[in-house]
Design goal:
alpha/beta; Spore Coat Polysaccharide Biosynthesis Protein SpsA, Chain A; about 15% strand; nine-stranded mixed beta sheet; globular; 2 domains
Length: about 325
């Protein structure tokens, strides 16, 4: 849209009701600037693309691409190339803005010209499962503390531990803003997973600064089957090993011990949950499947990375 100062970019495929709610909330933002919304649909069969068209909002543009062309990195680069704004806001299809000032709050830190990007806080949706809400506080995305990350030099970065490197490079395209001029110099890699943290690592090593702004928040969480969690953690820790040398679950013996400890902890929390007994029963099933998927997903991702093989899973 001509004259837009900020561009909100949303890839979608079969986004369902959550996408409809998210898009409506994005278009309802109260801002002091002009913004546009660009939706990239990669083959929806549930009417997500038609819903976007039906809104007939002059700020909204829909582009369709074949499903086989979708890629987490290159599709976002494509969307950014269509944008008019000096600030690019990347979102996922099921991230719900927390309020009508979410976009204003996200953009505010970018008044600092030394910042290359900022990402928003994430909160679990109110209807999320018990364990999703219970463990939200342990995830970087749910932090209540604002922060700014920078790297003095590549040498200083390499002296950090793997965990310190990961924490420094945390950046999440669930909801994030990137300065267009920086994106033009450092674009997303063509990858199936983790394009955001790869970009953040490159940006920091190039001398840019990145921020986390908790006053800008979205509701985003998943109650996925254990098979999805296993696949996602496999991809995640394959990626983290290659980026930072991270080895959270370095051996099968370690994995067994970690699973055992996590299973006991989850069972204890299921027993102590303030719920009716019949509602606790599913928690005990999750108390086994969740730790298994998380621990052995991390182990398998690391094992594949060390073997020089990539995860064969799709759809994460």
């Amino acid at each position: 849209m001509l004259g837009a100062e900020v561009s909100v970019l949303i890839p979608v495929k079969n986004g369902g009701e959550l996408f409809r709610r998210a898009l409506s909330m994005v278009l309802s933002q109260q801002t002091s600037f002009v913004y546009e919304v660009i939706v990239i649909d990669s083959g929806s069969s549930d009417g997500s693309d038609r819903f976007a068209e039906s809104l007939r909002d002059p700020r909204l543009t829909l582009h369709r691409i074949p499903p086989e062309e979708f890629n987490h990195g290159s599709t976002r680069n494509f969307a950014a190339g269509l944008a008019q704004g000096a600030l690019l806001v990347f979102m996922v299809q099921d991230a719900l803005p927390g309020n009508v000032r979410w976009l204003e709050s996200l953009i505010a830190p970018m008044a600092d010209p030394t910042l290359a990007g900022v990402c928003a806080r994430q909160l679990p949706r109110p209807e999320s499962g018990y364990f999703v809400r219970k463990y939200a506080c342990q995830i970087l995305a749910y932090s209540t503390k604002s922060r700014v990350a920078s790297v003095h030099s590549a040498e200083a970065f390499e002296r950090l531990s793997a965990a310190e490197k990961y924490s420094l490079c945390y950046f999440d395209n669930v909801c994030a803003c990137i300065r267009r001029s920086v994106w033009q110099n450092i674009q997303f890699d063509r990858v199936d997973f983790g394009e955001d943290i790869r970009w953040a690592r490159k940006a920091l090593l190039a001398g840019y600064r990145l921020a986390f702004e908790p006053s800008a928040f979205v509701y985003h969480s998943h109650d996925r089957p254990w098979t999805y969690t296993f696949k996602r953690l496999t991809h995640d820790h394959w990626n983290l090993y290659h980026l930072f040398g991270m080895e959270c679950v370095p051996s099968f013996r370690f994995a067994v011990r970690a699973f055992w400890g996590s299973w006991i902890q989850h069972c204890r929390e299921a027993r102590e949950a303030d719920l009716a007994f019949y509602r606790k029963l599913p928690l005990f099933m999750h108390a086994c499947s969740k730790p298994f998927a998380e621990v052995f997903g991390q182990y398998w991702g690391l094992r594949l990375a060390k073997a020089g093989r990539g995860p064969a899973f799709r759809g994460v």
